[in-house]
């Protein structure tokens, strides 16, 4: 594989499995030093060790992205360990509240907003200054397909992810001349442990979700990682403020 990220440092949240781990492996294989942040220390250490065993550079920092001090510490670790920051993938997220809006309490609302939107705000607050100090770079925020379309029974998550798209566009405009690029990833369902857990590991549930995608299947984490790596690389140098889909046609309906 090429070296698009040689001498670059990329920070990735939600990096213990699924999309985050796949992106970490991909950019590390292309030369990046990766700084991984997540709550699961054992899983995070395993991903970092796997990358190092393959000849890459990786540092795992335990972090809860809903706590701004943790987000600040994660960014500071990248700067102190590797001396710079060139890219960030704000990927941590999950659905916490299910059901019709009238049945969702304040706790469920706040949990979805804090993890899926406020955490991205914290990331941007600390990543943008680090990228400025490093001469520019790229940030990618995972907005999911529900950042651009609606779906019932997960209203707080949909609201948060739509907020991610708006936040992405605003920060992209603020930093377009620096140059710092900021984009949103619009991903469909992905075959990850979290997805399988949410489906109850039933073939019927997985088939129902796959049927929502015109291509008739869900994606592999590596397919998302390939696109994410492109958007984080200098090859995407004229793309900013965009919400870009890799979703098997989900949002084209």
**Considering DSSP H and I runs of 4 or more, what fraction of the residues is helical?**
40-55%
Sequence stretches where pLDDT stays below 50 over 5 or more residues: none
Shape: globular
The CATH homologous superfamily name equals NAD(P)-binding Rossmann-like Domain
Cα Rg: 17 Å
Assembly status = single chain
CATH architecture: 3-Layer(aba) Sandwich
Intertermini distance:
35 Å
The order of strands across the largest sheet is 3-2-1-4-5-6-7
CATH topology group: Rossmann fold
Mean pLDDT: 95
Q: Please state roughly what percent of the residues sit in beta strands, choosing from under 5%, 5-15%, 15-25%, 25-35%, 35-45% or over 45%.
A: 15-25%
Largest sheet: 7 strands, parallel
- Report the total helices: 8
How do the SSEs run, as a string of H and E? Answer: EHEHEHEHEHEHHHE
Q: Tally of extended strands?
A: 7
Number of domains: 1
Main CATH class: Alpha Beta
Structural class call reads: alpha/beta
């Amino acid at each position: 594989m090429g070296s698009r990220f040689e001498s670059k440092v990329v920070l990735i949240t939600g990096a213990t499995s699924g999309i985050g781990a796949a992106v970490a492996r991909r950019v590390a294989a292309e030369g990046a030093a990766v700084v991984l942040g997540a709550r699961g220390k054992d899983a995070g250490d395993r991903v970092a060790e796997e990358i190092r065993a393959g000849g890459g550079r990786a540092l795992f920092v335990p972090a809860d992205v809903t706590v701004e001090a943790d987000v600040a510490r994660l960014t500071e670790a990248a700067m102190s360990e590797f001396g710079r920051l060139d890219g960030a993938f704000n990927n941590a997220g999950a659905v916490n509240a299910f059901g019709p809006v009238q049945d969702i309490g304040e706790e469920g609302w706040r949990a979805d907003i804090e993890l899926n939107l406020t955490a991205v705000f914290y990331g941007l607050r600390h990543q943008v200054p680090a990228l400025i100090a490093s001469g520019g770079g790229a940030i990618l925020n995972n907005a999911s397909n529900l950042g651009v379309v609606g779906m019932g029974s997960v209203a707080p998550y949909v609201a948060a992810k739509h907020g991610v798209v708006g936040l992405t566009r605003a920060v992209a405009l603020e930093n377009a001349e620096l140059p710092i690029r900021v984009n949103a990833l619009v991903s469909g369902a992905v075959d990850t442990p979290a997805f399988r857990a949410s489906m109850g590991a039933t073939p019927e549930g997985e088939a129902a979700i796959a049927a929502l995608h015109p291509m008739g299947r869900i994606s592999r984490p590596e397919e998302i990682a390939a696109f994410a790596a492109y958007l984080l690389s200098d090859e995407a140098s004229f793309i900013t403020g965009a919400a870009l889909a890799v979703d098997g046609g989900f949002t084209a309906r």
